[in-house]
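step: validate -> pass
step: tokenize input -> pass
step: predict -> running
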Amino acid sequence: MAYKINKRKIINDPVYGFISIPGDLIYDIIEHPWFQRLRNIRQLGLTSFVYPGATHSRFQHCLGALHLMESALQTLKSKGVRITPEEEEAAMIAILLHDIGHGPFSHALENSLITGITHEDLSLLLMRKLNETYSGSLDLAIRVFSGSYKRQFLHELIAGQMDMDRLDYLRRDSFFTGVIEGSVGSDRIIRMLNVVSDVLVIDEKGIYSLEKFLIARRLMYWQVYMHKTVLSSESLLGNVLKRAKELALQEIDLFATPALRFFLYNKIRPEDIGPSSLFTPGIIAANFTRLDDSDILASAKYWADSQDPVLSNLSARLINRNLLSVELQNEPFSEGKLNELRDRAVEKMRIGREMIDYFVYTGSISNLTYTPNAPEVRILLKNGTIADITEVSDMFEHKLLSERVTKYFLCYPKEII
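step: predict -> pass
step: emit ->
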């Protein structure tokens, strides 16, 4: 006797409690190996080097965002917003898969092994391949995800100033890091959502929750995402992969897992995920979806014994958490200070000057209260008119929300001082 599989599962999430899987197709997507891979990709990369509890995964985040999307859609429907069952399912699939294109340690792959291709580009590629598997069932979800669907508020729930992605990652990252300043009242904000002329708005009585959300986002960027030790560790990881890529392109044989080897020994360009490519998108997707954090860590353990002194040194530092010292300030570092540190590093580390930029380097980070290129936050006033948050809030003015705050960092080996 054949038994029907129960696909309406209930999951016990540490942030929200019991959450449910809202449909059979969504259950099947979650069970797909490409989505299950997200269990092995940390949401916050190497942030656990600073906050030991920050070991949660992209898998957990995507399920949390799915839960918030379901709540948001139910809230909007209760306020009279017409949303068809097809639109509802499409929006939930789009938010579920919004991070499926993330590589190992979140952003490390984008900045070293692959250039010019974002995780959003890869997410769209994988969604299109999954759409083939599910016989076109993801057509509407892809349109919602890419912003090409006529009902813009559905896309804003995925990629806006107060989307379900941000609402989940702020609350979840705050929970796992223990940085309570990042905790946001996601339930309250969702209950204040509304739609006017197919664009997302916030009811006026939700203004204080929204202000707290914007402040929490700003604080989390400086305290967690752009913490100076996080910068040091993630730039170190980027340099490990950059050096491995350089050696691979010189046809030097390196240990690597098969999926990682594909990206080390091939130049993957933006056009390679389109129709005019040396590789078929299916080959890129097949290798990318076998790649996770364990590939990088396993390979770095071998590279710590590499004959190349740069790769060996960098990899050993990563594995043993022997991070570079880092300084952070509001002004660029002088060329004189950089040259002095480079001279010391050349002398004490016995590494050629042409390789010293792997160990002594500077860069900048910046933070915006508002997300670039996303619609401004609109407030639905009690009289039925729409206003920008800067017209209503007594805490924010447009300059504060749009002004980019930039800081500069300097990394160098602690043993040269």
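step: describe -> DSSP finds 18 helices and nine strands in the chain.
step: cleanup -> pass
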